[in-house]
Each structure stands twice: as C-alpha cells, then as structure tokens.
Design goal:
Layout: E1 9-13, E2 19-23, E3 28-35, E4 41-43, E5 64-65, E6 71-72, E7 76-79, E8 82-85, E9 98-99, E10 112-118, E11 121-130, E12 141-149, E13 154-163, E14 167-168, E15 172-173, E16 176-177, E17 191-194, E18 198-200, E19 213-214, E20 226-227, H1 228-231, H2 237-242, E21 246-250, E22 260-266, E23 272-278, E24 282-286, E25 295-296, E26 302-303, E27 309-314, E28 329-330, E29 336-346
Antiparallel strand pairs: 1-2, 2-3, 3-4, 5-15, 6-9, 7-8, 10-11, 11-12, 12-13, 13-29, 14-28, 16-27, 17-20, 17-22, 18-19, 18-21, 21-24, 22-23, 23-29, 24-27, 25-26
The structure holds alpha-D-galactopyranose.
C-alpha cells in the first residue's frame, strides 16, 4: 500500500475444486472459480489481477461495503437526539447523497485476516475496527467477516459486529457476478428470480421514498424467473431513475431474521446458477448500470456496461432516516449478526 503496509492474498479451496482468492484490502473477493455444466472452471467475479487496479475509483468490485452499505439521504441522520454529518460521495441524477460508508469505507481499508478451518471446511476470517468518528459515524465498531467455501459449493458469509456507542450499521458484500465468466459479455441474458413481492421505490437521489410498493404488474416482479434484459429498459419511472435495476427488494419472510432464499440467478449457456440465502430483510439487485466499459479488469478484459450484477443482501437503504423500516441501529452490549450464502450449482 502507499503507506508500506503489506496486502495479503489468501486462496481457499473446497473438496470439489472450487477456488476463491480473497485479499484483506477491503475484504475483497478477487477471484472465484466455479464449474459450468461440463465441469469447466471459470472465474465468475469481476476484479483486478494487480492490487493497483483497486484504486479509490473502483466501483466496490468484490468488496465488503460499510459502515453503512448503500445510501443515506443528504449525508445526514439523527440518532438519540444528535445529528451526524457524513460525506456526500455520490450524486445519482445530480443529487448528493452518502454511499457505502463514505470516502474511505470498509472497502478501502486494510482488514486483519487469518485462515480458518472447521470440520474440513476452509475459509478466511477478516476483522476491522472503525474508530469513533471515522467517516462521521459514532462509536468504535469492530466488524468480523468470515468467508467459508463449503463442500456443498457454497460461499457462506457471516458478519458480526459490536460497538461502544449507538451507530447505524449495514454491511454487505458487493461482488459483481457474471456467470459466463468475468469480462465475458453482459448479464442481460441471465435469468433472475427474487423472492420478494415488494420493493422500495426511490426518489431521484436513489433514496427510498418510504413506500413499500407491490411488484405485481411491474418490471420489478421477479417472483417467476425473467431475463434481466427483457424488461430492464421498459418505460417505468423507477427504471429511468435507477438507469435500470438498482433497487432494494423487500424479501418475503415468514419470520424476520430467518435464513431463507432471496434470489436465484441462472445463465443458460453455461448452466451456472447461484442461489442466494440470507437472514437480511432486503436485497439490492444492481445490474451494473454504472459500469461504462472503461474498466479493464482481470486478463485485460473490459467490463462492459451491465457486464456484472450485484446481489447485496442488506437492510433497506436510508434506514437511519426512515422510521418505518427495520432498524439498523447497533447499540453497546448487543452483537450484530448476519448470514448470507451464495450456493453455486448447474442445471
Ligand atoms: C450499489 C448501488 C449502486 C452503485 C453501486 C456502485 O449497488 O446501489 O447504485 O452505486 O453500488 O457503483
């Protein structure tokens, strides 16, 4: 790193030949090799071969984002009577808002990392302590992330966090998947299912209006599988604001906090499929609309407009300013816990 600290890269494998490379810079998943239906391994996540690719302008490729993943309106929130001011580091449709924890969020810091193994399963444990006042947020917060590669071909991610002052917290994983292989075309032919009968429409700044709207009868209805490209440019105000899909879906859950299926993504040519399970109440399905074909990634491949998609399991955007959304406030003495599983298979 510019300050001479050394960045590490860990390689994790499972019993079936799946392989994942993880760096402790930003807790970034650099490579993830999974088989297609003929058993051919390909790297299906966007990223860079060299550390230098992960500049501050990298659009969060592979990283953990936080302290608050996604947006906070006007870079401000009030907690226990005190107003906090955050960086407005993003301007969707010209509106300045706070995004992914600010100027130097969890994606741009060096985490402590160590290899972990349990019952024949391998992984990496990463932890980071954000200081009281860091990026404007209150409280010293310690976050621990475990990445496991199970023998059921799952990337299992667990998050845990504690704080010494009340603070908003919403951590998620910002990997861009392309099931044809990183840098191979767009994701428009991928079929998506989302287990959500509602979503949170946004204003111009991509901040939720507060409404929990039914997806029924809209291009946001993915309760049955649809190709992403089929409706992404449909004449719908929300698609215009997002530049395509870039919204939070409200997951249908029997019990809040239960680990349940959130999404399925399938690519017919390779047969690859991802099933996503999470304990979180929402998922940001982002279709890579801000990728503009200028990023040259691994093996010199260009990442096209809509060349990758993110499935960011999360609490809803702007929750610190939205009293009717599930709370994202972590208080001293409590432990934040969250689990997300990406299960890879073929059909
Ligand atoms: C999230 C946001 C998108 C975009 C990307 C990063 O997915 O919802 O609007 O900011 O991160 O480019």
């Amino acid at each position: 790193m510019p300050d001479q600290r050394v960045v590490q890269l860990y390689t994790v494998t499972n019993a079936n030949g799946l392989k994942m490379d993880v760096t402790n810079y930003g807790a970034i998943i650099v490579r993830l090799y999974v088989p297609d239906r003929d058993g051919k391994l390909d790297d299906i996540v966007l990223g860079f071969d060299e550390f230098s690719g992960y500049t501050p302008d990298s659009p969060y490729l592979g990283a953990v984002v936080g302290r608050y993943g996604n947006r906070i309106a006007d870079g401000k929130f009030t907690l226990d009577g005190k107003t906090y001011t955050l960086a407005k580091n993003n301007t969707p449709n010209g509106v300045p808002v706070h995004l992914h924890g600010g100027e130097v969020g969890f994606d741009k810091v060096l985490w402590n990392a160590e290899p972990v193994s349990k019952d024949g399963i391998h992984g990496v444990k990463l932890s980071y302590t954000a200081k009281d006042g860091e990026e404007g947020y209150p409280g010293n917060v310690t976050v621990t992330v475990h990445y496991w590669l199970t023998n059921e071909n799952e990337l299992k991610i667990t998050y845990a966090a504690t704080t010494d002052k009340a603070t908003p917290l919403n951590v998620t994983q910002h990997t861009y998947f392309n099931l044809s292989g990183a840098g191979v075309g767009t994701i428009l032919d991928h079929e998506v299912t989302l287990d959500a009968s509602h979503f949170t429409p946004t204003d111009k700044g991509l901040i939720p209006t507060g409404e929990i709207a039914p997806v029924e009868g809209t291009p946001f209805d993915f309760r049955k599988p649809h190709k992403i490209g089929a409706r992404i440019d449909a004449d719908h105000e929300q698609l215009k604001l997002g530049g395509g899909y870039d919204h939070n879906w409200v997951l249908d859950k029997k019990k809040p906090g239960e680990l349940s299926r959130a999404a399925v993504v399938y690519e017919a040519k390779t047969g690859r499929q991802i099933e996503v399970f999470t304990t979180e109440p929402g998922i940001q399905f982002y279709a890579g609309n801000f990728l503009d074909g200028t990023i040259k990634g691994k093996q010199g491949r260009i990442y096209l407009y809509r060349g990758g998609l993110c499935l960011e399991t999360q609490h809803f955007p702007d929750s610190p300013n939205q009293p009717n959304f599930p709370s994202t406030i972590l208080r001293p003495g409590k432990t934040y816990e969250s689990t997300t599983i990406y299960r890879f298979s073929t059909r």
